[in-house]
């Protein structure tokens, strides 16, 4: 039996979590906000964009603005 190839389109949130260093809480927040995991690369600051905050912090700020004090539902 051959080894199965990993399908990158199968779990886009798992890929985004490792690629952009997000924790489970931030991923849950991004899902509730309706963000697309394939478009998170636009949020990552480059060296020429020092005013940008990291993607995880940006997601948390957007979540707080929209949902105030509510905690995200983290699914495992």
Terminal-residue CA separation: 30 Å
Using DSSP, what is the number of strands? 0
Q: What's the quaternary structure here? A: single chain
Radius of gyration, in Å, reads 14 Å
* Biggest β-sheet strands, sense, barrel: none
Average of per-residue pLDDT values: 86
Strand content: under 5%
Per DSSP, the total helix count is 3
In sequence order, what are the helices and strands, one letter per element? HHH
Low-confidence stretches: none
Descriptive report:
The protein has 76 residues and is mainly alpha-helical. The protein has a domain at 29-71. It has 3 helices and no strands. It has helices spanning 12-19, 24-33, 55-67. The chain starts with 11 loop residues before the first helix and ends in a 9-residue tail after the last helix.
Summarize the structure.
The protein is mainly alpha-helical.
Give the helix/strand layout.
Blueprint: H1 12-19, H2 24-33, H3 55-67
List keywords for this structure.
41% helix, mainly alpha, 3 helices, 76 residues
């Amino acid at each position: 039996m051959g080894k199965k190839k990993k399908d990158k389109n199968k779990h886009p949130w798992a890929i985004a979590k490792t690629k952009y260093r997000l924790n489970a809480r931030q991923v849950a927040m991004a899902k509730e906000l309706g963000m697309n995991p394939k478009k998170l690369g636009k949020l990552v600051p480059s060296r020429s964009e020092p005013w940008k905050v990291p993607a995880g912090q940006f997601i948390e700020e957007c979540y707080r603005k929209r949902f105030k004090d509510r905690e995200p539902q983290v699914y495992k």
